[in-house]
Each structure stands twice: as structure tokens, then as C-alpha cells.
Fold this sequence. Notes:
Elements: H1 11-18, H2 22-31, H3 33-40, E1 41-45, E2 51-55, H4 57-73, H5 81-86
Antiparallel strand pairs: 1-2
Helix pairs in contact: 1-2, 3-4
Amino acid sequence: MNQGKHTLLPYEIILLATSGDSEAIHVVLAHYEKYISALSTRAVRTEEGMARVFLDAELQHRLENKLISRILAFDASMISGTAKESMPKK
């Protein structure tokens, strides 16, 4: 993915993921992997006063699980015909 340029997930992947297709769900998770990692990064100070940055794995898993639950709860039929038409084709 290019820096500063956002890509959209293909509509077909969204439909498959919302219907529970595990491969499509993995595609969605991979699409948001960097964002979830950024949200899961924590900075702490050591006893010596040094800053230490680490990935909070528990928070990362919670965010991934929340994304999966929202994918499965999403009603793709709510997307209007106009929105579907404006989505990029493969």
C-alpha cells in the first residue's frame, strides 16, 4: 500500500466476509493490520526513565476480535446501489 493513499477493499470481499467466509475475513484483517498494530503500540517509561515502545498483544487481539464481530454483524444490503456502483471493479 502506498503511503498517504488509501485503498478500498473490493465489494466482493466485503460480501464474502460478512457472510462468514474465513479467507475473506483474513483479507480484511490483513488490510487493517498496520492500523491495528499502530493502535496497539504503547509507550512506557522504565524505572531508569527510558522510554520503551512495545506492542500490546492483548489489545491487538481484542481489536482484531472486535473487527471480526463487527464484520459478521454488518448488513451489506444497507449499502446503496449508488455506493456499489462507485466502488472500484477488479
